Amino acid sequence: MAKIRHIAIATQDPDAAAKFYKSVFGFKELKKLDNERATGYFMTDGNLNIALLKFKTDQLGKGMDYVGLHHFGVYAADDAQGCVDRVFENGGQEYVDEMELTPVDDGKYRRPDKFRGFEGMIFDVADKPWPGTPDYKP
User: Fold this and answer.
1) For residue range 88-129, what is the model confidence (pLDDT) as tens digits?
2) Would you call 29 helix, strand, or coil by DSSP?
3) Residue 34 in contact with residue 42, Cβ under 8 Å?
4) 133, part of any domain
């Protein structure tokens, strides 16, 4: 079974969002980032990696002021390729962005890794765990 291990939240103010999640829930900051796709933070609750990101392009077609769920990621430890095959068998499509996907951890994630599924929801399929999750080993 694939497990949700990553949620990306689009925000207009990553600093304030990170402060909120740290103060309210006790989430820990893993990494601050600023790359060609987005600025923001990777946080964790010890089980789930949470990205709080201000995107630099309108990746969802909802406008640059969109805030809310951007995508989620599943860790398919035992059968990532089988999970991807099932995505396509059930009508999902590879999600293609004009910008190169930026690996979180030196390119350890499978490519393609982003897909559009039911009702256009975007998600990642990873064959390696995200930082801050129980299975992650640096």
Assistant:
1) 888 888 887 654 444 444 444 555 678 888 768 888 888 888
2) strand
3) no
4) no
Identity (one letter) of the amino acid at 27? F
Residue 138's alpha-carbon distances to 31, 65, 115, 132, in angstroms, are 14, 35, 26, 10
CA distances from residue 107 to 100, 104, 127 in whole angstroms, order as listed: 12, 7, 11
Tokens of 95: 């999600």
- Domain at 83, CATH number: 3.10.180.10
| CA atoms of 24 and 125, how far apart (whole Å) | 29
For 48-74, b where at least 16 C-beta lie within 10 A, e where not — what string? bbbbbbbbeeebbeeeeebeeebbbbb
Number of domains in the chain: 1
Enter the pTM of the model.
Answer: 0.72
Task: Report yes or no on 72 lying in a domain.
Answer: yes
